[in-house]
Amino acid sequence: MHPARFTFSTRLTFLKGTDLAETKDHQAVFAPWEDPNEAPLIRFRGVTKKFGTFTAIHDVSLDIYRKEFFALLGPSGCGKTTLMRLLAGFETPTEGQIELDGHDIAPVPPNQRAVNMMFQSYALFPHLSVWENIAFGLKREGMAKDKIGDRVTEMLRLTRLEQFGRRKPHQISGGQRQRVALARSLAKAPKLLLLDEPLGALDKKLREETQFELMDIQEKTGTTFVIVTHDQEEAMTVASRVAVMDAGVLKQVATPSQIYENPNSVYVAGFIGDVTILQGRARKDGERYLVDWAEGQPPLVTHSGVEIGPGETCHYAIRPEKVEIHKDRPDDDNVLHGKVIDIGYLGNISTYHVELANGQIIRAQSFNTERSTRQAFTWEDEVWVNWTDRCGILLAG
Amino acid sequence: MRRLSAFNVVSLTLGFAFLYVPMLILVIYSFNESKLVTVWAGFSTKWYGELAGNQQFLDAAWVTLRVAFFSSTIATVLGTMAAYALIRSGRFWGRTAFSGMIYAPLVMPEVITGLSLLLLFIAIGLDRGILTLVLAHTTFCMCYVSVVVSSRLITFDQSLEEAARDLGCTAAESFRLVTLPIIAPAVVSGWLLAFTLSLDDLVIASFTSGPSSTTLPIKIFSSVRLGVSPEINALSTIMIGIVAIGVIIASLMTKRSMARRLADEAAADRAELT
Amino acid sequence: MRKSLVYLIPFLWLLALFFVPFLIVFKISLSDIALARPPYMPQLDLSEGLAGIRAFLSELDFENFVFLTTDSLYWKAYLSSLRIALIATFLTLLVGYPIAYGMARAPHHWRPTLLMLVILPFWTSFLIRVYAWMGILGQEGYLNQVLLWTGLISEPLSILNTNTAVYIGVVYTYLPFMILPIYAALERLDISLIEAAEDLGCSRTSAFWLVTFPLSRPGVTAGCFLVFIPTIGEFVIPSLLGGSKTLMIGKVLWEEFFSNRDWPVASAVAVVLLLILIVPIIFFQKNQQRQAEADA
């Protein structure tokens, strides 16, 4: 596993920035979680949260570092929002400890935490103008009047809302409201900003634009962001690291590319992106593993970082974009024969559903690099699919 | 959109005629010259003049207004607190009993409420007067206020309060700076409702008022028992007029602010598209 | 600490001025009448300590309740109140439903105005609204004048001081309580449901009975309870519009208290009235709860 290699590409935007203070020792990547000398900003130690008999969070231990853009990803009800509300102080852990900068934050009420939150509903005060909304937290802090003015102006500029300061929340558009909420929560310069589904209320196009804007603002202010989302694309786009949650448990915490290319469980593999999962038994063959998965089908080959004992059941996961489709039998590993039964044409790519002799369906994707209305393959075509010995993912259990 | 059928038009016309014609007749005949209220004898405002000279009615009106003002104000404070406790505090000791006591007075026959309060005041040796009236009216009015305010609080986005806490407010500050300004219209209409209910109450006031604190409804009732009187018609017209003007102004104001709001939102959405 | 004050203050207020008074009513209903001030015996004298309490308890009895069953006036008044309330509720439904239906079918921009017109009478004095009918329904009232003038009748009708006048009074004053919940239920009704019913072969009338009416039933139930419950204990309407033959328990209680000054019997009447009301009140609350859950 080479996380550094993967982070390089996904965090390219970060490197383009001017603030490279974090990349000490001329290290070209932002990966404080790999640095044993780096103290985490947030540390969850065995945190459990129960509501009556329902366990929302089960024994979570997690470190989040300064300047990270950390995403909590999972289906609704998985506990990600509870985890965030624990940080904000609206809930207290049933067991375990949460530390901010090395101090237990349990006794600190939400109004005294150096943590601010951007709410899913934005929670803009409808009776106050945009300007007053942003100034709200600063006034509570007892900041001097002229300083408040400067800070609010700065925030309005950061979020490109200069002309809207005097409007009321209902007088601006949804996208602008989202930016006011962001400006308001950033105004107090918190150590940690929590964002609860910050883009959930925006339409798809605006959401994609705003993702980059968020990353830009995070980089400019150098604030640590923790974002809660159920949208995997959003998490993959913005985050330095992603925590995949299910039923109150952290399934995997890693960079987006690690999560995608090296998921640690069937759950994570299935949750992120498109995947075909086959069940079989593994045996070692030199450097590689062979997986016997069906009568009359050749074993599947892959390199794996996961150790699996001989004859143990395991899962073999393969993503459709790694699968090639051919008219003639290629001379390679992992070659399977079947028939095209379905084609999903998306314009830029096409997904072929190839049914094998044993009824198993393998999905293969190909880029439509040439401009043509005629497809290379059509229904009922006899085809070969294959992938290289580095593409399959071996999962225990 | 379907057109209104003839049946709908007829039922609406007859229905609203039924609701408004009796009051209209009352208003018209208040300007009747004759003492015989059912015989029209020409236009006159003399009954309004007589009313203005009737010290008993004026005294009763003054008592009623004072009682209504104090009881609706106290009821608004208590009712808002009760609504807040019911909607926000989640489970607490005695919650079922509490919500029962909030809703019960709404359906309780007034004769029972009045009787029971009177017996309480006698048991504790409190002389009947303005004070007992205010206590009694506050008690049933606060329940109405709490129903009005809690129906607003249910739709109130709780994350607004959390946002205020998150930005540094204590619980009391977040109520004062965020919750109260937003629910203010509901609190005001709760106060107005309490005020009119107190103005209007006959039965509970009959039980709980003393000889020196006769209210206007008690006065009206005792004179109306003997039959229709032109003075009461005039008084009724004044009361109907005040309510009608108040409600019309209030509805015009909400209508205008709604229209402005919709226009603002439309403009904001247009601005985003360009 | 401060948080608990928010509910403790209104809680204690209601406890002292709503709950405790009921206990007193209950206690006095078990006492005997006395020619004193206050006119009932015994009174709890705590200065005598435990003996006082014992003496107090030993003198309580169900005599007044027994009296209610022996004098036919009382149970007839209860029955008559229930009957009048039932008939009046049904009449209010008959009048109110078409109005609510018409409002829900009216163009969108009319609805706020129509709604205001329904609510407006609610803000005007109840007493005055009842009083308005005295002038209309009397022997020489406006209604008889109109009917005699048109020649529909030759003798004036006597409506005032009869049960008919009470029904009219109840329908008139409680109409908004019937219209509003039905309107709320009908207004939410998706018009495409009726179109679907018609598409599947219903006539307009059968679409109404098979789709619209069943879906408006929670509103109808709520409206009926809102009229029925307060009408049972009504005092103003029977005493102004009803006659000497109109028996309603609210009026009986009033007279027992103010004219006969028999506080213990008045209290017993109140206790029984309350027991009668508990059943519909519980049904009403159940209905409201079900609706709230269905909305959630």
Describe this structure in words.
The complex is a heterotrimer of chains A (397), B (274) and C (296). Chain A folds into 2 domains: 3-114 and 190-266, 3-Layer(aba) Sandwich (Rossmann fold); 275-396, OB fold (Dihydrolipoamide Acetyltransferase, E2P) (Beta Barrel). Chain A is 25% helix and 31% strand. Chain A contains 10 helices and 20 strands. In chain A, α4 crosses α5 and α4 (130-141) packs parallel to α6. Chain A starts with a helix and ends with a strand. By secondary structure, chain B is mainly α. The longest helix of chain B is centred in the last third of the chain and has 44 residues, at 230-273. Chain C has 13 helices and 2 strands, in the order αββαααααααααααα. In chain C, 76% of the residues lie in helices and 1% in strands. Chain C has helices at 2-29, 50-58, 63-70, 72-105, 111-123, 126-137, 142-150, 163-188, 191-199, 204-232, 236-240, 249-258, 263-295, and strands at residues 32-33, 40-41. Chain C has a two-stranded antiparallel sheet with strand order 1-2. The mean pLDDT of chain C is 86. At the B-C interface, α1, α3, α4, α5 and α6 of B face α1, α4, α5, α6 and α10 of C.
List keywords for this structure.
heterotrimer, B: 274 residues, mainly alpha, MetI-like fold, 11 helices, 0% strand, C: 296 residues, two-stranded antiparallel sheet, globular
Topology summary:
The complex is a heterotrimer of chains A (397), B (274) and C (296).
Chain A: H1 3-10, H2 12-16, E1 42-51, E2 54-64, E3 69-73, H3 80-88, E4 95-100, E5 103-104, E6 115-118, H4 130-141, H5 145-158, H6 174-186, E7 192-196, H7 204-221, E8 224-229, H8 232-238, E9 241-246, E10 249-254, H9 256-261, H10 266-271, E11 276-285, E12 288-292, E13 300-302, E14 313-318, E15 324-326, E16 335-345, E17 349-356, E18 361-367, E19 382-386, E20 393-396
Parallel strand pairs in A: 3-8, 3-9, 6-7, 7-8
Antiparallel strand pairs in A: 1-2, 1-4, 4-5, 9-10, 11-12, 11-14, 12-13, 14-20, 15-19, 16-17, 16-19, 17-18
Chain B: H1 6-29, H2 46-53, H3 55-88, H4 95-107, H5 110-123, H6 130-154, H7 158-166, H8 171-200, H9 203-208, H10 216-224, H11 230-273
Helix pairs in contact in B: 1-11, 2-11, 3-6, 3-8, 4-6, 6-8, 7-8
Chain C: H1 2-29, E1 32-33, E2 40-41, H2 50-58, H3 63-70, H4 72-105, H5 111-123, H6 126-137, H7 142-150, H8 163-188, H9 191-199, H10 204-232, H11 236-240, H12 249-258, H13 263-295
Helix pairs in contact in C: 1-13, 3-13, 4-8, 4-10, 5-8, 6-8, 8-10, 9-10, 10-13, 12-13
